[in-house]
Task: inverse folding
């Protein structure tokens, strides 16, 4: 099915996009805890999404500690919505 996005379709990346679709932004640690993955696994998945311009990351201080924040871009949100619609079509 052509509307399935191979970048989003990988389970961890699909979960990342699903979490970000309901939030303006999330911090790296929260995403890591939700996915139950290592820093390196999450970093790799975020890099793939970032290279596709589906997410943006920013580094800010949170209570004096550096923290990476992640958010979906408009392009990423549209790609996610198209992917979800394709999955719903398959299920129907």
Result:
């Amino acid at each position: 099915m052509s509307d399935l996005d191979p970048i989003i379709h990988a389970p961890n990346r699909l979960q990342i996009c699903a979490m970000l679709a309901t939030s303006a932004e999330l911090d790296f640690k929260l995403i890591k805890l939700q996915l139950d993955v290592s820093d390196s696994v999450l970093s790799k998945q975020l890099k793939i999404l970032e290279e596709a311009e589906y997410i943006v990351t920013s580094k800010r201080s949170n209570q004096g500690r550096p923290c990476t924040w992640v958010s979906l871009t408009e392009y990423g949100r549209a790609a996610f919505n198209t992917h979800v619609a394709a999955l719903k079509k398959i299920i129907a």
In short: Residues 74-91 form the longest helix (18 residues). Residues 67 and 75 are 24 Å apart (CA to CA).
